[in-house]
Amino acid sequence: MSDYHARALGDALGRLAGRPFLAATIRRVQDNAEAIAGELRDAVLQDVPQFSASMNPDLLPESAHHGTEHVLELLRLLRGGVVGDFQFVRVHARRRAEQRFPLEATLHAYRSGHKVLSRWLRELPLHGMSSPKGTQQDVAAMVDFTMEYTDAISTTFASTYSAHILLLANVAGDERARLLEDLLEGRDEADPHIERMMRDAGFPNRRQMFCVALARSVDPSEMLNAARARRLAEAIDQTMADSAPHRLIDVRANKVTMVFSGVRRVSGWTAPHSSLAQRVSEALHFVGNAALIGVSSDVPSTSHLPIAYREAASALELADVTQRVVLFSQVSLQRLLLHFAGQEFRRALPAWAKDFYAEDERARGVLIATARAYAGADMNVLQAAQTLGVHPNTLYARFQRILDITGLQPRNFGALATLLVVADCKPKSGCEPEGAA
Questions:
Q1: How many other CB atoms sit within 10 Å of the CB of residue 102?
Q2: pTM, 2 dp
Q3: Which of 157, 71, 38 lies closest to 108 in space, CA to CA?
Q4: If 266 and its partner were Cys, which of 178, 270, 305, 338 is the partner (CB 3.0–4.6 Å)?
Q5: Are 264 and 204 in contact (CB under 8 A)?
């Protein structure tokens, strides 16, 4: 409880001291303690639907006991007790946080309880035990006290609840990070330690297949901001909430790292389920345009997760704004070879590559698009023209432009293969290839 609320409640108690009705009020509350607690319980059930809707068998008995604790605390304070730290409220707050009962529901319950307490505590002053002016002052003092009491317990509950939720989240995060680290190291699920941690995390323990996905913001620098990286992880987790696979999601090495599991088959006699990685990648398309994501192939055991992690990392490197989710198993062999060859291969690009890229940029990408469409149509000019929505003569004109720049005739299979490799090596950032001069 803040110093402000402690002072305010202490001042309200000071204004009650010596009032002629106070002793009678204390006797009345003491004699009706059980009835007041019952009214508190009934008011909460009537005003706050979450208490009736919850199937938690501990909630109502513990809340009823908490109401009795409030009556006893009020009696202690009215008898001259000093304002304490409301330890019984803190215990109740930690209990509700552990059970994830909504914070706003309990705060609503305190507001409902305030009406009950205020009615019981100000009834005697309203009977006019002093002059009319004195009665008005007595009622105002009691109303101030009940209001300050409700503010104090609400503030104490909210701060304790939030702090305990954060503590529980940190503990869960530590356990999640440890399990994720162990899984990505390839610890086999037959290891008793891993088996226990996976069971505690809710992973089914038989006939599972696994895949790994990695995600980052389109702007990599945003992943250096821990809060933003965590928000991306939470957004992905919410997106995947209704999907079938079980998941473990955390931020690791400036990337959102995800391990998914799904049932491989119901029994040894049934057919395997469809690809887990395929289902995961389809669901991840709904994450939105702010993220790039790479998804591995399926692996049959946690011991193969390091392989899946490397596949997901490669797929993530191949993702861009034109293809935000890349499934490793659907990447062409040629593209993978170029990716793994990296800069060493780019140093061997022909000298004309720079001019070819520049001309393609000036033509808004139609030269490379034409070469790819021609290859996709099995080198059939008419089909390629139809795919591109242009006249066949337009393709011949583009072939001539390519020939003038590169010296290669695209209608020749070997030349076309070379052009496609060079096209796949085109820098996404617009930087020049190292081998071009």
A1: 13
A2: 0.53
A3: 157
A4: 270
A5: no
